[in-house]
Specification:
The structure is a homotetramer. By secondary structure, chain A is mainly alpha-helical. In chain A, 72% of the residues lie in helices and 0% in strands.
């Protein structure tokens, strides 16, 4: 996935709509959390078993769209804050590994 | 960003800790939304101006870690649901463009 | 506010629709957080000043409805878990007072 | 539950700590959603059955505290916005009843 390329698209998209004024990191974090809840909403009344087969249901496109929305706000926020998502993830996986030792 | 490679790391990580049993899409969506709120929490009492300069504050590493956690759960969920994040984003940007026409 | 009376109404409401099966505490917590995000969504692109005057805007009824939804799920959850909300709040205010000393 | 009385306590609490400046409705909505996610976090990896018996577990006080935090922010927000929570709930129950007809 070419993050820089997506960031350029999202930046152009915001500029063309005069949305940059709204995209401060506080607002973007809120918007991201709202999208995350829209993903949660799809699953809220399902059993774990029904959740497992969500992509075989009429909600499959909806799931993809909500996941895309989350990623879009995250990538946009990373652009505004100059965060390198790829190295942030790599660092966090190392840190998680130190915190949670594997079973032996 | 090599999503497949990260998915392999996250899958191995979960297997080594016997966590796969917890990673149904309902639980992953919940965990993702919890991480999104941890990102929101950093900004909740800040003015928009303070939020803009968050990366010059003592919270910069914290911001990166919460963004990484969100991305980690999103990438993990995409793996479990066989969602191609890159094409999901591309599709959503097109759809957003149809919904929100540019200013002229 | 008569919590017991509201709980009776909500319990009857759920029974009449055969919804009790969905109202386990995990699902109710999810639903509550989704409603909280619907409240956040109203404010996400507003300046703090615009937020202050939300009740003078066309969103005033929307705000009330989202606040009601949050309270409804919280009261329903308290019923299912036998939590006395009034004493839980009283205890938490004491605890918060110990954690955050007043300015002098 | 005496909402007015709790609102007075919360208002005094905020004044004594010079917190009123942070309590605009946008920030309070964010804080409420963050507390809702802290409640969700308790349940995120549990089965529905484990969730049902949460009050018999070591998490029972934690659950009460998170529920109290949600209610505290909701009551505080209602104060700042002059929303009558009791009538908002009554109105919403009527509206929900019209939207979702009972089973027959």
């Amino acid at each position: 996935m070419n993050i820089k390329n997506i960031q350029k698209q999202l930046s152009d998209f915001a500029d063309e709509r005069d949305w940059d004024q709204f995209h401060n990191p506080k607002n973007l974090a809120m918007a991201l959390s709202v999208e995350a809840s829209e993903l949660v909403e799809i699953f809220q009344w399902l059993t774990p078993e029904q959740a497992e087969s969500i992509m075989d249901s009429g909600e499959s496109e909806h799931v993809k769209e909500e996941m895309a929305d989350i990623m879009i706000y995250l990538i946009r926020m990373a652009d505004k804050l100059n965060v390198d998502l790829e190295s942030a993830i790599a660092d966090k996986i190392v840190k998680n590994g130190e915190k949670h030792q594997p079973n032996t």
